[in-house]
Amino acid sequence: MAGKAEGSQDYIREIETHIDKTLEHSDIITKLTESMSEITEKNQNNIECIVENVNKINTSNQQTIEEFEYIRQNNELINEALQVINSVSEQTNLLALNASIEAARAGEAGKRFPVVAMEIRKLADQSNASAQNITDILNKMGEGTNQSLKAINLTQTNIFDTLELLENTEKDFSQMYNCQNSVINEIIQSEKLIKKLEDDIQAIKSVMGQTLSEFEATSSEISDISNVLEELNKSFQAISDFAEDVQTSSNRLIEK
């Protein structure tokens, strides 16, 4: 029975070794999971900052689009004003031509009118040329504005796609963070159960120690009893031998 008790103690010691190793691995996993959670949380915060910055860029692009639209509308107004200037220039040229014709009819009295008419025509031509130059510049600006608007609209579309991707990534990180926290909680609960098992094993060891001590004490008592019984057996044997000797002596006396 002592051998069985010692075997049980060896088995318990083996279980304790496995528990210690399990606790060590559990602690390592907990630390790794906590590190992953910290990294996940940091990445989640970074994504939130990126989303915020992209939203700012999107707002800025929207303002730029509105400003380009404002420029386009002003260009249209300027074009309308230039058309008026061109119309006035054409009418001025007609007036200058009419003035030249009337001066020719007036003869000597109107000889100064052609000079004035010529100057008016020059001013009209210059106004017309300037208006045409401005029109060309505005047309080029309008083309550039339209190209810029197309590029900004494309950028805005890409921003919307990026925002959607970032939001989905943020959700994934959030789910990962929650899962890792759940794993940490499960590990903590497992550690509690393992430690409770360790406490139970210590209690079993204590009980087994007491039982083994009692068993050893009982074994000692049994050994003492065996010794006493052996002495009694020897005494009985001596008595039996003595009785036989007495019987033999009695028989001899009777025979005589």
Tell me about this structure.
The protein has helices at 2-106, 113-255. With 256 residues, the protein is mainly α. Helix 1 (2-106) runs antiparallel to helix 2. The two termini are 61 Å apart. The mean pLDDT is 71.
Task: Outline the secondary-structure elements.
Blueprint: H1 2-106, H2 113-255
Helix pairs in contact: 1-2
Protein name: Methyl-accepting chemotaxis protein
Keywords: Transducer
Organism: Acetivibrio thermocellus AD2
Number of discrete helical segments: 2
CATH superfamily: Methyl-accepting chemotaxis protein
The CATH class turns out to be Mainly Alpha
What is the percent of helical residues? over 70%
Keywords: Transducer
GO cellular component, one term: membrane
GO biological process, one term: signal transduction
Protein name: Methyl-accepting chemotaxis protein
Main features:
256 residues, mainly alpha, Helix Hairpins, 97% helix, Methyl-accepting chemotaxis protein, MCPsignal_dom, transducer
